[in-house]
Amino acid sequence: MRIAIVDESASRAAVIGEGLVALDDCELFVVTERTALVARIAEIDPDIVLMDLGNPSRDVLEEYFAVSRALARPIAMFVDESDDEAIAASIDAGVSSYVVDGLAPHRIRPILDLAVRRFNAFARLQADLAEAKGQLAEREAIDRAKRILMDSRGLTEPQAYAELRKTAMNQGRRIAEIAEAVVTAHELMGGA
Q: Where is the ANTAR domain positioned along the sequence (predicted)?
């Protein structure tokens, strides 16, 4: 497992590293510079990112939240103090684990496991949501194409669907693709 530890303080990063020493087959990368942080982390290509921010200002928090939004990785963030606004912002930014005053070597491994599991669960939910939205959009396109065929050719709904299905089979394409083509052609021809 590749783990990026982001901390401007090498001594605090060492505490995190200490908590990860027992992990087998683990590569640690410590990043202490904030400049070009997203590019640096992308170059490392870690499986998880652990950020220790100590007691960050609002600007620093927002900068790290921007990094979190840009990465598709589990992120555990350690801070010394927090408030409701910072917690809400971290959730919106995709931080998997936001730990207040919890930087101790013996706690690192469970926090890392939690961050990975929470990230994976959230990623599954996002994928399911994207799939459901895609299916809904396809269904809407098919329904709209059926209405166009029904109005323009005087077909019943089953006949319109049969035409879409037949055309899709003849062209080796999906019904949704044919439906989208019908809708696009109708719009180009001045249909509403």
A: 122-183
